[in-house]
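Late entry, written up from scratch paper. The run itself happened at the end of the previous shift, but nothing got recorded in the book at the time, so transcribing now.
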Amino acid sequence: MSRLSLSFCTGPYDRMAAIHDGAVAIDGIDLIPMAVQQPMEVFARMLQNQEFDISEMSLTHCYALRQNGKARFFTVPVFPSRMFRHSYIFINRHKIKTPQDLAGKRIGVQGFQMTAAVWIRGLLRREYGVSLQDVEWVEGGVNEKGVAGGEATSFHPKGLKVAHAGNTRSLSDMLATGEIDALIGAIKPASLRTSPDVARLFPNYHEIERSYFKDTGIFPIMHAMVIKDSVYKAHPWLANNVYKACEQAKTIALNRARFTGALQFMLPWLDEHLEEIHDLFGGDAWLYGVARNRKALTAFSDYLVEDGLLAKPMTPEEVFLPIDGLAAKV
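Output as recorded:
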């Protein structure tokens, strides 16, 4: 069987580097790797034009498009992006003091549907009892004016109270002036450094996020890998091979990080971080597969329903392709 030539696009992550640099091959594939820094660009290009054969995708879109029958891709349970999100709730000090103060306020967000915002709203409701029903959401660019790719990725539940910052103001500036009371999402506002009126809701976020993980076992998932529908239907063995290659690439990244002869990354206390990964996560914080992520995936589905972005909960098996962990024969 002749080998396939397929494009592969993710962010420039350490756990994907071995695939991008050719150290790890996807069996049966001559890969055309592309690294794109801005996730929104990857999502928009995939959603609008199916520009890639294999790419990462917002977890929200993996669920919502699968439920409404509009997904033009199949999802592999490989999660290239994960992040705790208590640290990405920013406030105007004069408007917000506690999580409960967020009820009924104007809150900025790059896009209501974005995965980071879904996780943040979920933890605010579940962990702090915050009612978000009467919030006015203000969508816009965080540090830039407007949202590149926003039209391709954005969708809202019916009845959502939403306004738009437009192309003349950034959400960061609006937070500093008090035009919005808080800001959530995946981008840190520049005003956190430049304005004395802007702060994190949880200054001790590291401690809180560690406790959250110990209590829930959840390390929030942001993105998953997807395969273009036409490619997967023609070559269903590809899902196992992508999964296997991503596991191999992640192992290489962890081994490189653990090398003690010289620092792999520009993190002066890298050893401390690696020890924390060992103590808290058992040595691997980036677990792939459905079984080892069921708590997180189930919680995320519930949060999507609470947000009105899903009509009913979805099991992981409804969203993700089955993977046996071994490469299928080509």
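The chain has two domains: 4-83+220-319, 86-216.
(Scratch paper discarded after transcription.)
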